Amino acid sequence: MFDTRYALSPQRRMLLATQSLMQELGLAAAYNVIRATAGATILMYHSIAAEADALWIDPRNRLPPAAFRRQMAFLARHRRVVSMDELASSIRAGVSLPRGCVVITLDDGYRDALTEAAPILAEYGLPATLYLATGYVSRTENQWIDQLYALFASRTRDEIHMPWENEARSLGNTRASLAAYHKIARKLIVSSHEERASILAELDDRLRPSRRPPRLTLCWDEVRILRRQYPLVGIGGHTRDHIDLTSASPAEAKEEIEACSRDITDTLGERPRHFSFPYNRSAPGLESALERIGFETAASSGPDTLIGTGTPRFSLPRIEAPYGYSRLKFYTSGAYPGLSLALTGKR
Fold first, then answer.
1. Helix 10-24 / helix 27-35 crossing angle, nearest 10 deg
2. 234 and 197, same structural domain?
3. Cα 83–86–90 angle (5° rounding)?
4. Is residue 169 exposed (0-12), middle (13-18) or buried (19+ Cβ within 10 Å)?
5. What pTM was estimated for this model as a whole?
6. How far apart are CA 105 and CA 116, in angstroms?
7. What 8-state DSSP symbol labels residue 38?
């Protein structure tokens, strides 16, 4: 497997270990009592692929099904999992949900949302919101990051020369390959769908992959099956082509959101009520457009991941679901990020 994850710095490893220790020593519980914390946490997942498909998915975007099941079992027993609808209602009413309330979200529209995640959620009776990048669903196209990952993971050549660079780049060792991968990924994040397709086609020609990945994205028929068989999983919008809205013009950004809403409404017969910004990057001025289109919330980023009465409906911060079990407990306890900031100065 081509591991795209950067090695954590000693400081970062120490912070994560400290956060786990805060939970295990009971400091989180004490902090909650002293501060009388309240509010909900939104967890963000992407792929829950089984091992066969994991070969084609950027490891940063995947949590194995066994780990997802363990996390859902914990949330079902020790937290109160609420839907995005319930969270939106509490914000409109000016009432903070009690600490320990958690909203589960899945981004992009991976096929394993149907084959792996939804059955586990149903087993524990947990609601969730699946945010679809509708253009990828319509084209049954794998996410661009996974297309890039598949090219690097199965390449037969160790040299590339991209149009925006002056010289060829060697991929002959892990460090060089990883640096090139992340540099191209940064370029693709801020590109349009058409630009991405062109760059990926050129990479395909230069890297000559030995194998082709399977379809990793839901098709609309599978989305219909998911809605019919797993009604606790709601469908939200995630733009049409999963572009960075901060890199698009205001008109392009609004069209991405409107087109996404139309795709879901026309195909499923239900208007999506919840939206998530790709890469958690929200562009100024889009709140009014989202509300006009009919969205009630938008997930983004923010300094305080504990959502209460003062949290704007169109800037709901989320936490990337961690691999570590103790950190999941801490992140959903109500004490995060306050306790971590108080003791370490960092989130």
1. 70
2. no
3. 145
4. middle
5. 0.96
6. 14
7. B
Cβ density class 177-216: b for 16+ within 10 Å, e for less: bbebbeebbeebbebebeebeebbeebeeebebeeebeeb
Closest by CA to 162, choosing from 192, 186, 136, 193, is 186
- Domain with residue 36: its CATH number is 3.20.20.370
Q: What is the dihedral of CA 144, 149, 154, 160, to 10 degrees?
A: 80
Cβ–Cβ < 8 Å for 259, 237:
no
**Could you tell me the end-to-end alpha-carbon distance of the chain, in angstroms, rounded to an integer?**
30
Q: Which residues neighbour 333 within 8 Å (Cβ) at sequence distance 6 or greater?
A: 23, 28, 29, 32, 99, 100
Same domain, 46 and 109: yes
Nearest-angstrom CA–CA distance, 184 and 180 = 6
CA–chain centroid gap for 121, Å, is: 17
The pLDDT tens digits of the residues spanning 175-196 come to: 889 999 999 999 999 999 999 9
Q: What pLDDT, on the 0 to 100 scale, is given for residue 284?
A: 82
Out of 159, 179, 207, pick the residue that ends a domain. 207
Helix (H, G, I), strand (E, B) or coil at 62: strand
The residues, any chain, with a CB within 8 Å of residue 208's CB and separated by 6 or more, are 155, 156, 157
pLDDT of the residue at 12: 87
157, amino acid identity = R
Confirm whether 340 is domain-assigned. yes
CB neighbour list of residue 58: distance below 8 Å, 6 or more residues apart: 4, 145, 146, 148, 149
For the chain, give the percent of residues with pLDDT over 90.
82
Q: Using an 8 Å Cβ cutoff, are 1 and 309 in contact? A: no
Q: Which of 41-55, 142-156, 160-174, 278-292 comes out lowest in average pLDDT? A: 160-174
